[in-house]
UniProtKB/TrEMBL annotation:
This is Zinc finger protein 525-like. Gene3D superfamilies: Classic Zinc Finger. Coiled coil: none annotated. It holds the Pfam family zf-C2H2. InterPro entries: Znf-C2H2_CTCF (IPR056438), Znf_C2H2_sf (IPR036236), Znf_C2H2_type (IPR013087). The keyword Metal-binding applies. It is found in: Nucleus. One of its GO terms (cellular component) is nucleus.
Length: 205
């Protein structure tokens, strides 16, 4: 199977388009672009994916396991990509630049989402109304306006959330947990947005 990468042989053909693959697993992944087939489903939320490794990675957001630690502050992340994005708050390094405006991003995938604000492309559509959006996460939040499902309840007050991540952020109000520590002064923050705004004051931006 490995030798196909050298010979260029691609025996697995897509029945819908001209796509060919050297491995059957690659064809299975490709087919999801046509059918939307996503056999791997999260048991905690509505997340689905065509690939098993992506589900394993997603599950870290529920288990609370955060193996990736920032060397500058106490920030921890479930995904390496999240840590890379976080590190830009310390370094300011954003190598991916928009060709239409001054926007810069830490990752090409983030830049790709931003570019939709210029192209007008909104690939994520609501199945109930005419709502469209540039980000999958925005659609997930929007869908709760139809179901009004808020399954995650705070154990300390009457707060309810549609997403577990929202409840986790809310709980910091009760626990006093402030994982974002400024390396320039004693400031700490519970939320990334507040931390990023604070850091901009040091950088004079």
């Amino acid at each position: 199977r490995h030798m196909r990468t050298h010979t260029g042989e691609k025996p697995f053909e897509c029945p819908v388009c001209n796509y060919r693959a050297a491995q059957n697993s690659s064809l299975v992944h490709h087919m999801s672009s046509h059918s939307g087939y996503k056999p791997y489903q999260c048991t905690e939320c509505s997340y689905k994916t065509p690939e098993e490794y992506k589900l394993s990675r997603h599950m870290l957001t529920h288990t609370g396991d955060k193996p990736f630690e920032c060397s500058e502050c106490n920030y921890k992340a479930a995904l390496k990509s999240s840590l890379v994005h976080h590190m830009s708050s310390h370094t300011g390094y954003k190598p991916f630049k928009c060709t239409e405006c001054n926007y810069k991003a830490t990752a090409n995938s983030i830049l790709a989402v931003h570019m939709r604000t210029h192209t007008g492309d909104k690939p994520f559509e609501c199945t109930v109304c005419e709502y469209k959006t540039i980000q999958k996460g925005h659609l997930a939040r929007h869908m709760h306006t139809h179901t009004d499902l808020k399954a995650f309840k705070c154990s300390e007050c009457n707060y309810k959330a549609a997403l577990k991540s929202s409840l986790n952020l809310h709980m910091r109000k009760h626990t006093g947990n402030k994982p974002y520590h400024c390396p320039e002064c004693s400031y700490t923050a519970a939320h990334r947005s507040a931390f990023t705004y604070h850091m901009s004051k040091h950088k004079g931006t």
